[in-house]
């Protein structure tokens, strides 16, 4: 699929430089590679270099008040597939969608409500897990067990 972005010589098409949203999507997709997928490795290098150049040259312009610039910075900092999903969802709601010109107030309210409900559920689960962890005293009985309950919990969600 990604070979369609290449020209006859095997390089990525120069026309991709004009489409910042497309470059951003190519960059994000390149992190879904498996070992030995050289096309995606090249796509990552190509798109990352162009996106960094655009950031340095202030060539990211869109009609959304800098949202695209914010999304590119966010992606270059850490790809979306490597982020913890719920905090990233909150970032998107607060930093991107609320500032969008095409915001749907009902959808925004629903997204915030969903985030708060899920966060409340996680807090309740952590409360029960903390109680269980203290009652079992596993950190004391098993010296090799790490006392990092919240960190381990967050990795599971």
Automatic annotation (TrEMBL):
Q: Does the keyword Lipid metabolism apply?
A: no
Q: Which residues form the Terpene synthase N-terminal domain?
A: 1-76
| GO BP term, pick one | terpenoid biosynthetic process
- At the top level, the lineage of the source is Eukaryota
| UniProt KW Transport keyword | no
User: What keywords does the record list, in alphabetical order?
Assistant: Magnesium
GO MF term list: terpene synthase activity
Q: What InterPro entries does the annotation carry?
A: Isoprenoid_synthase_dom_sf, Terpene_synth_N, Terpene_synth_N_sf, Terpene_synthase-like, Terpenoid_cyclase/PrenylTrfase
Short name of any one Pfam family annotated for the protein? Terpene_synth
The protein's name: Terpene synthase N-terminal domain-containing protein
Native organism is Erythranthe guttata (Yellow monkey flower)
């Amino acid at each position: 699929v990604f070979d369609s972005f290449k020209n006859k010589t095997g390089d990525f098409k120069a026309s991709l430089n004009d489409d910042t949203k497309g470059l951003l999507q190519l960059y994000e997709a390149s992190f879904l590679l498996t070992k030995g997928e050289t096309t995606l490795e090249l796509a990552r290098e190509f798109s990352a270099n162009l996106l960094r150049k655009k950031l340095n040259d202030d060539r990211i312009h869109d009609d959304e008040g800098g949202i695209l610039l914010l999304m590119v910075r966010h992606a270059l900092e850490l790809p979306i597939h490597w982020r913890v999903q719920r905090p990233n969802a909150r970032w998107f709601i607060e930093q991107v969608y609320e500032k969008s010109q095409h915001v749907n107030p009902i959808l925004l309210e629903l997204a915030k409500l969903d985030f708060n409900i899920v966060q409340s559920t996680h807090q309740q689960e952590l409360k029960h897990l903390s109680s269980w962890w203290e009652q079992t005293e596993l950190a004391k009985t098993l010296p090799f067990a790490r006392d990092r309950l919240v960190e381990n919990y967050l990795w599971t969600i």
